[in-house]
Amino acid sequence: MSQLQEFQDCLRNAKRIVALVGAGLSASSGLPTFRGSQGLWKNFNMIDLATPDAFYIDPGLVWQFYAWRRHQALKAQPNSGHYALAQLSKQTEKEFITITQNVDGLLTRAGHRKSGLHEIHGSLFELRCTSFTCTYIERNNYKDPLTKNLSDFGFDEDDLDTTMETLDGVDEPTFAAPQALLVDDLPKCPVCNTLMRPGVVWFGESLSLRTLDGIDGFLQAGPVDLIMVIGTSGTVYPANSYVDLVRRGGGAVAVFNTDIESEILRGDVANTWGFQGDAAEWLPKALD
Ligand code: BV8
Ligand code: ZN
To answer: Which of 37, 70, 154, 250 is the most buried (most CB within 10 A)?
Structure first.
Protein backbone atom coordinates (compact mmCIF):
# COMPACT_ATOMS: atom_id res chain seq x y z
CA MET A 1 0.00 0.00 0.00
CA SER A 2 1.42 3.44 -0.87
CA GLN A 3 2.22 6.07 1.79
CA LEU A 4 -0.65 8.15 0.42
CA GLN A 5 -3.15 5.30 0.74
CA GLU A 6 -1.95 4.52 4.27
CA PHE A 7 -2.25 8.21 5.17
CA GLN A 8 -5.74 8.48 3.65
CA ASP A 9 -6.90 5.40 5.56
CA CYS A 10 -5.61 6.98 8.76
CA LEU A 11 -7.29 10.30 7.91
CA ARG A 12 -10.60 8.58 7.17
CA ASN A 13 -10.62 6.76 10.51
CA ALA A 14 -9.14 9.62 12.53
CA LYS A 15 -11.52 11.39 14.87
CA ARG A 16 -9.14 14.01 16.32
CA ILE A 17 -6.70 15.72 14.01
CA VAL A 18 -4.20 18.60 14.37
CA ALA A 19 -2.49 20.56 11.58
CA LEU A 20 0.71 22.40 12.55
CA VAL A 21 1.41 24.98 9.85
CA GLY A 22 4.42 27.14 8.99
CA ALA A 23 5.59 29.58 6.36
CA GLY A 24 5.99 26.83 3.72
CA LEU A 25 2.20 26.63 3.37
CA SER A 26 2.13 30.24 2.12
CA ALA A 27 5.23 29.91 -0.08
CA SER A 28 3.08 29.14 -3.14
CA SER A 29 1.10 32.28 -2.44
CA GLY A 30 4.33 34.19 -2.99
CA LEU A 31 5.13 34.97 0.64
CA PRO A 32 8.77 34.45 1.67
CA THR A 33 9.55 31.79 4.26
CA PHE A 34 11.94 32.60 7.08
CA ARG A 35 14.85 30.22 6.86
CA GLY A 36 15.04 29.01 3.30
CA SER A 37 17.48 30.30 0.68
CA GLN A 38 15.38 33.41 0.05
CA GLY A 39 14.24 33.44 3.67
CA LEU A 40 13.31 36.61 5.46
CA TRP A 41 15.74 35.97 8.28
CA LYS A 42 18.54 35.36 5.74
CA ASN A 43 18.17 38.87 4.44
CA PHE A 44 17.03 40.61 7.56
CA ASN A 45 18.30 40.15 11.05
CA MET A 46 15.36 38.97 13.15
CA ILE A 47 16.96 40.65 16.18
CA ASP A 48 16.67 44.00 14.38
CA LEU A 49 13.08 43.43 13.40
CA ALA A 50 11.15 40.83 15.41
CA THR A 51 11.96 41.46 19.08
CA PRO A 52 10.57 43.87 21.69
CA ASP A 53 14.02 45.54 21.96
CA ALA A 54 14.05 46.22 18.22
CA PHE A 55 10.69 47.98 18.52
CA TYR A 56 11.83 49.96 21.56
CA ILE A 57 15.02 51.08 19.79
CA ASP A 58 13.45 51.93 16.43
CA PRO A 59 9.67 51.53 16.17
CA GLY A 60 9.74 53.24 12.80
CA LEU A 61 12.02 50.59 11.32
CA VAL A 62 10.00 47.73 12.77
CA TRP A 63 6.76 49.27 11.55
CA GLN A 64 8.29 49.63 8.06
CA PHE A 65 9.02 45.90 8.08
CA TYR A 66 5.57 44.91 9.28
CA ALA A 67 3.79 47.39 7.00
CA TRP A 68 5.71 45.78 4.12
CA ARG A 69 4.73 42.27 5.36
CA ARG A 70 1.07 43.42 5.58
CA HIS A 71 1.25 44.78 2.06
CA GLN A 72 2.73 41.50 0.78
CA ALA A 73 0.12 39.38 2.59
CA LEU A 74 -2.76 41.51 1.31
CA LYS A 75 -1.45 41.19 -2.27
CA ALA A 76 -1.18 37.39 -1.85
CA GLN A 77 -4.05 34.98 -2.43
CA PRO A 78 -4.80 31.85 -0.40
CA ASN A 79 -3.60 28.77 -2.29
CA SER A 80 -5.18 25.34 -2.67
CA GLY A 81 -3.37 24.16 0.46
CA HIS A 82 -5.11 26.84 2.53
CA TYR A 83 -8.45 25.91 0.96
CA ALA A 84 -7.92 22.18 1.60
CA LEU A 85 -7.34 22.82 5.32
CA ALA A 86 -10.31 25.21 5.45
CA GLN A 87 -12.47 22.47 3.87
CA LEU A 88 -11.33 19.92 6.46
CA SER A 89 -12.12 22.42 9.23
CA LYS A 90 -15.77 22.37 8.11
CA GLN A 91 -16.18 18.58 8.36
CA THR A 92 -18.38 18.29 11.44
CA GLU A 93 -17.70 14.61 12.04
CA LYS A 94 -14.02 15.35 12.78
CA GLU A 95 -12.54 17.25 15.69
CA PHE A 96 -9.86 19.27 13.91
CA ILE A 97 -7.71 22.29 14.82
CA THR A 98 -5.03 24.14 12.90
CA ILE A 99 -2.12 25.60 14.86
CA THR A 100 -0.54 28.15 12.54
CA GLN A 101 2.73 29.99 13.09
CA ASN A 102 1.88 32.19 10.12
CA VAL A 103 0.68 35.72 10.70
CA ASP A 104 -0.44 36.30 7.09
CA GLY A 105 -4.18 35.72 7.57
CA LEU A 106 -4.44 33.47 4.48
CA LEU A 107 -6.17 30.57 6.28
CA THR A 108 -8.85 32.98 7.52
CA ARG A 109 -9.29 34.33 3.98
CA ALA A 110 -9.59 30.71 2.72
CA GLY A 111 -12.61 30.30 5.02
CA HIS A 112 -11.06 28.18 7.78
CA ARG A 113 -13.51 27.72 10.68
CA LYS A 114 -12.59 30.46 13.14
CA SER A 115 -12.93 28.42 16.32
CA GLY A 116 -10.59 25.74 14.96
CA LEU A 117 -7.81 28.13 13.94
CA HIS A 118 -5.10 29.08 16.46
CA GLU A 119 -2.74 31.83 15.25
CA ILE A 120 -0.06 31.21 17.87
CA HIS A 121 2.28 33.94 16.65
CA GLY A 122 -0.51 36.49 16.30
CA SER A 123 -1.55 38.33 13.16
CA LEU A 124 -0.21 41.08 10.91
CA PHE A 125 -3.76 42.45 10.92
CA GLU A 126 -3.97 43.00 14.64
CA LEU A 127 -2.56 46.11 16.35
CA ARG A 128 -2.06 46.50 20.10
CA CYS A 129 -1.64 49.59 22.28
CA THR A 130 1.81 49.66 23.95
CA SER A 131 0.61 51.46 27.07
CA PHE A 132 0.68 49.20 30.15
CA THR A 133 -2.51 50.77 31.42
CA CYS A 134 -4.49 50.41 28.22
CA THR A 135 -5.77 47.14 26.77
CA TYR A 136 -6.92 48.47 23.41
CA ILE A 137 -6.54 45.89 20.60
CA GLU A 138 -7.56 46.46 17.01
CA ARG A 139 -8.40 43.26 15.11
CA ASN A 140 -9.00 42.83 11.38
CA ASN A 141 -7.20 46.05 10.46
CA TYR A 142 -6.58 45.53 6.72
CA LYS A 143 -5.75 49.17 5.89
CA ASP A 144 -2.91 49.39 3.39
CA PRO A 145 -0.92 51.57 3.73
CA LEU A 146 -1.39 51.65 7.44
CA THR A 147 -0.51 55.34 7.62
CA LYS A 148 0.39 57.76 4.83
CA ASN A 149 4.05 57.79 5.84
CA LEU A 150 4.38 54.00 5.73
CA SER A 151 3.24 53.94 2.13
CA ASP A 152 6.52 55.31 0.81
CA PHE A 153 8.97 53.38 2.92
CA GLY A 154 10.88 52.07 -0.04
CA PHE A 155 10.67 48.39 0.81
CA ASP A 156 10.24 46.22 -2.22
CA GLU A 157 11.07 42.68 -3.37
CA ASP A 158 14.43 43.59 -4.98
CA ASP A 159 15.55 45.27 -1.78
CA LEU A 160 14.91 42.04 0.07
CA ASP A 161 18.29 40.53 -0.64
CA THR A 162 20.48 43.60 -0.70
CA THR A 163 19.62 46.76 1.13
CA MET A 164 16.63 48.58 2.37
CA GLU A 165 16.34 52.14 1.16
CA THR A 166 16.35 54.33 4.21
CA LEU A 167 13.75 57.02 4.22
CA ASP A 168 16.12 59.63 2.89
CA GLY A 169 16.35 57.46 -0.23
CA VAL A 170 20.03 56.68 0.20
CA ASP A 171 20.81 53.02 -0.53
CA GLU A 172 22.73 51.76 2.50
CA PRO A 173 23.07 48.21 3.83
CA THR A 174 21.61 49.45 7.04
CA PHE A 175 18.25 49.31 8.65
CA ALA A 176 18.66 52.56 10.46
CA ALA A 177 15.58 54.41 9.33
CA PRO A 178 15.63 57.87 10.90
CA GLN A 179 13.32 57.27 13.84
CA ALA A 180 12.27 60.88 14.36
CA LEU A 181 11.02 61.03 10.77
CA LEU A 182 8.71 58.10 11.36
CA VAL A 183 7.57 57.90 14.90
CA ASP A 184 5.12 60.80 14.62
CA ASP A 185 3.27 59.09 11.78
CA LEU A 186 3.08 55.66 13.31
CA PRO A 187 -0.27 54.16 14.35
CA LYS A 188 -1.55 55.62 17.63
CA CYS A 189 -4.10 54.21 20.05
CA PRO A 190 -7.52 55.88 19.57
CA VAL A 191 -8.16 55.53 23.31
CA CYS A 192 -4.95 56.90 24.88
CA ASN A 193 -2.91 58.12 21.87
CA THR A 194 0.04 55.86 22.74
CA LEU A 195 2.07 54.15 19.98
CA MET A 196 0.49 50.94 18.67
CA ARG A 197 2.55 47.79 17.85
CA PRO A 198 1.99 44.91 15.43
CA GLY A 199 -0.15 42.18 17.05
CA VAL A 200 2.48 39.48 16.44
CA VAL A 201 4.52 37.49 18.98
CA TRP A 202 8.18 38.49 18.80
CA PHE A 203 11.15 36.35 19.76
CA GLY A 204 11.56 36.25 23.50
CA GLU A 205 7.88 37.06 24.05
CA SER A 206 5.54 34.55 25.54
CA LEU A 207 2.61 33.37 23.49
CA SER A 208 -0.91 34.43 24.40
CA LEU A 209 -2.12 32.31 27.31
CA ARG A 210 -5.62 32.34 25.82
CA THR A 211 -4.26 30.77 22.62
CA LEU A 212 -2.13 28.25 24.49
CA ASP A 213 -5.07 27.31 26.74
CA GLY A 214 -7.26 26.79 23.68
CA ILE A 215 -4.73 24.41 22.16
CA ASP A 216 -4.05 22.59 25.45
CA GLY A 217 -7.80 22.24 25.96
CA PHE A 218 -8.09 20.40 22.63
CA LEU A 219 -5.01 18.23 23.26
CA GLN A 220 -6.19 17.24 26.72
CA ALA A 221 -9.77 16.45 25.62
CA GLY A 222 -8.60 13.13 24.16
CA PRO A 223 -5.83 11.43 22.17
CA VAL A 224 -4.95 13.00 18.82
CA ASP A 225 -5.01 10.37 16.06
CA LEU A 226 -3.03 12.38 13.48
CA ILE A 227 -0.89 15.52 13.32
CA MET A 228 -0.04 16.98 9.92
CA VAL A 229 3.18 19.04 9.99
CA ILE A 230 2.92 21.38 7.04
CA GLY A 231 5.60 23.71 5.67
CA THR A 232 7.49 24.28 8.88
CA SER A 233 11.15 23.88 9.77
CA GLY A 234 10.11 23.06 13.33
CA THR A 235 12.69 25.54 14.57
CA VAL A 236 10.57 27.60 16.86
CA TYR A 237 9.45 26.67 20.35
CA PRO A 238 6.79 26.08 21.59
CA ALA A 239 5.15 25.37 18.21
CA ASN A 240 7.60 22.56 17.56
CA SER A 241 6.73 20.78 20.82
CA TYR A 242 3.29 19.64 19.62
CA VAL A 243 4.60 17.02 17.19
CA ASP A 244 6.35 14.93 19.85
CA LEU A 245 3.39 15.38 22.17
CA VAL A 246 1.06 13.75 19.61
CA ARG A 247 3.63 11.08 18.71
CA ARG A 248 4.08 10.18 22.41
CA GLY A 249 0.32 9.88 22.70
CA GLY A 250 0.35 7.27 19.91
CA GLY A 251 -0.79 9.59 17.12
CA ALA A 252 0.48 9.33 13.54
CA VAL A 253 2.57 12.09 11.96
CA ALA A 254 2.39 13.24 8.33
CA VAL A 255 5.02 15.73 7.14
CA PHE A 256 4.33 17.90 4.09
CA ASN A 257 7.51 19.77 3.14
CA THR A 258 9.75 20.47 0.16
CA ASP A 259 12.63 19.28 2.32
CA ILE A 260 12.05 16.01 4.17
CA GLU A 261 14.60 13.99 6.11
CA SER A 262 15.48 10.88 4.14
CA GLU A 263 14.65 8.48 7.01
CA ILE A 264 11.09 9.75 6.94
CA LEU A 265 10.97 9.37 3.16
CA ARG A 266 12.38 5.84 3.49
CA GLY A 267 9.61 5.07 5.95
CA ASP A 268 12.12 4.31 8.74
CA VAL A 269 10.35 6.48 11.31
CA ALA A 270 7.44 4.61 12.88
CA ASN A 271 3.97 5.99 12.28
CA THR A 272 5.35 8.87 10.21
CA TRP A 273 4.67 9.62 6.55
CA GLY A 274 6.60 12.15 4.46
CA PHE A 275 5.13 13.89 1.41
CA GLN A 276 7.94 15.76 -0.33
CA GLY A 277 6.92 18.76 -2.41
CA ASP A 278 4.75 21.85 -2.39
CA ALA A 279 2.12 21.73 0.34
CA ALA A 280 -0.23 23.63 -1.98
CA GLU A 281 -0.09 20.66 -4.35
CA TRP A 282 -0.02 17.83 -1.83
CA LEU A 283 -2.82 18.90 0.51
CA PRO A 284 -5.75 18.99 -1.95
CA LYS A 285 -4.72 15.49 -3.12
CA ALA A 286 -4.02 14.02 0.32
CA LEU A 287 -7.09 15.50 2.06
CA ASP A 288 -9.47 14.70 -0.74
C1 BV8 B 1 8.84 31.81 23.78
C2 BV8 B 1 6.06 36.23 14.40
C3 BV8 B 1 9.02 31.80 26.08
C4 BV8 B 1 6.84 37.41 13.98
C5 BV8 B 1 7.64 34.47 15.00
C6 BV8 B 1 17.37 31.86 21.99
C7 BV8 B 1 17.13 33.23 22.07
C8 BV8 B 1 15.84 33.74 22.15
C9 BV8 B 1 14.74 32.89 22.16
C10 BV8 B 1 15.01 31.53 22.07
C11 BV8 B 1 16.30 31.02 21.99
N12 BV8 B 1 16.19 29.68 21.90
C13 BV8 B 1 14.89 29.32 21.91
C14 BV8 B 1 14.16 30.43 22.04
C15 BV8 B 1 12.71 30.51 22.07
C16 BV8 B 1 12.26 31.11 20.76
C17 BV8 B 1 12.69 30.23 19.63
O18 BV8 B 1 12.18 29.14 19.46
N19 BV8 B 1 13.64 30.74 18.85
C20 BV8 B 1 14.15 29.96 17.75
C21 BV8 B 1 14.51 30.88 16.60
C22 BV8 B 1 15.37 29.18 18.26
N23 BV8 B 1 10.84 31.14 20.84
C24 BV8 B 1 10.28 32.27 21.31
O25 BV8 B 1 10.86 33.27 21.62
C26 BV8 B 1 8.78 32.16 21.45
N27 BV8 B 1 8.42 32.53 22.76
O28 BV8 B 1 9.52 30.83 23.70
O29 BV8 B 1 8.40 32.32 24.92
C30 BV8 B 1 8.82 32.82 27.10
C31 BV8 B 1 8.12 32.45 28.22
C32 BV8 B 1 7.94 33.39 29.18
C33 BV8 B 1 8.42 34.69 29.00
C34 BV8 B 1 9.09 35.05 27.84
C35 BV8 B 1 9.29 34.11 26.87
C36 BV8 B 1 8.11 33.10 20.49
C37 BV8 B 1 8.45 32.69 19.08
C38 BV8 B 1 7.60 33.49 18.12
C39 BV8 B 1 8.51 34.30 17.25
N40 BV8 B 1 7.70 34.92 16.20
N41 BV8 B 1 6.86 35.06 14.09
C42 BV8 B 1 6.97 37.44 12.48
O43 BV8 B 1 6.43 36.57 11.78
O44 BV8 B 1 7.59 38.42 12.03
S45 BV8 B 1 8.51 33.07 14.61
C46 BV8 B 1 8.68 32.90 12.92
O47 BV8 B 1 9.27 31.60 12.74
C48 BV8 B 1 7.40 32.84 12.13
O49 BV8 B 1 6.22 32.83 12.88
C50 BV8 B 1 7.53 31.49 11.44
O51 BV8 B 1 6.34 30.95 11.08
C52 BV8 B 1 8.19 30.75 12.52
C53 BV8 B 1 8.64 29.38 12.28
O54 BV8 B 1 9.23 29.30 11.06
P55 BV8 B 1 8.51 28.38 9.94
O56 BV8 B 1 7.09 28.77 9.82
O57 BV8 B 1 8.81 26.97 10.24
O58 BV8 B 1 9.23 28.89 8.66
P59 BV8 B 1 10.68 28.47 8.15
O60 BV8 B 1 11.07 29.42 7.06
O61 BV8 B 1 11.59 28.28 9.32
O62 BV8 B 1 10.46 27.03 7.50
C63 BV8 B 1 9.68 26.93 6.31
C64 BV8 B 1 9.60 25.45 6.01
O65 BV8 B 1 8.75 25.26 4.89
C66 BV8 B 1 10.93 24.82 5.66
O67 BV8 B 1 11.03 23.59 6.33
C68 BV8 B 1 10.85 24.62 4.14
O69 BV8 B 1 11.54 23.46 3.75
C70 BV8 B 1 9.38 24.43 3.94
N71 BV8 B 1 8.84 24.85 2.65
C72 BV8 B 1 9.23 25.89 1.87
N73 BV8 B 1 8.42 25.97 0.79
C74 BV8 B 1 7.47 24.98 0.92
C75 BV8 B 1 7.74 24.27 2.12
N76 BV8 B 1 6.98 23.23 2.53
C77 BV8 B 1 5.93 22.89 1.75
N78 BV8 B 1 5.60 23.53 0.60
C79 BV8 B 1 6.35 24.57 0.16
N80 BV8 B 1 6.03 25.18 -1.00
ZN1 ZN C 1 -4.16 52.84 24.45
So the answer is: 70
